[in-house]
Design a protein that fits this description.
Elements: E1 2-7, E2 10-14, E3 30-42, H1 48-68, H2 80-83, E4 95-109, E5 115-129, E6 139-143, E7 147-149, E8 156-160, E9 164-171, E10 176-181, E11 190-191, E12 196-199, H3 202-206, E13 210-214, E14 221-231, E15 247-248, H4 249-257, E16 264-274
Length: 279
Amino acid sequence: MSFGMVFPGRNWRLTACLSAFLSFWPLLAVAQTWVTVTGQAELGNRTMAEAKQAALEDARRQAVEAVAGVHVGSFSMVQDYVLRADVINSSSYGVIVAEEAGQWQIETLQNDPPLLVVKVLVKAKVAISKGKPDPGFIVTAKLSRNLYSTGDEMMVEARATLDCWVTLANLTADGNALVLIPSDIRRESRVEKNETFLFPGPSERAAGIRLLVRPLPEHRRDREAIVLVATKERRPLPPLLHGESGYSAAQFGNWLVGIPLDDRTVTILPYEVAARDQS
């Protein structure tokens, strides 16, 4: 999916480039392990682009399970964002902070009718954060809805049990993290205890700013997530390197696992967006 950020008199479509080299800032008190796995997905009624993405998601799920020692299930409408920046809702989950996709294969299974399966070999580095979460630091959040069609508007609402700083990102089906806060729209967001957080907020909406969703090019349907990271201390994202237009999801995860567990809480808000003729 890609967001259309609508401003008065203009329409921005922001995307980011997937980076192959992800560890450009230090991880703090984090264990990291490389694993090699094979992901696969049936072609079925998917496009080839969608099948390849599903195979990558399967590989990432296996990588996290192999290192974290837990089963990462595909709960309702959760795919890439669970695996790559699973952005750890608990200390037992891992985050992929680097990956290398190797050989791709298409196999035909002798079913009736024959079934095409897309396979990919992936080498992934999985990081596990140390420490324990603060049980008194809780964020409840929701989207305006979970199912969208091209051009629909999205709203994000949240409330925290402690004063906190909010970082908000869209983890996209192509492995990118579109950072919504901080950005040119809202430089930072300090939220007080039990205060309602809205994005876009009233002043932004009054200025004509909207979040309009749509699937990625060549995709009929995408399943993605909004990730809200609340921290007790201000935790700015590192500056982008020269020539980079945005963060990959793994870079976002790399930043995240460097934050102590007792200083942060993460809320994953999955959603699905379909082309108008697929909704």
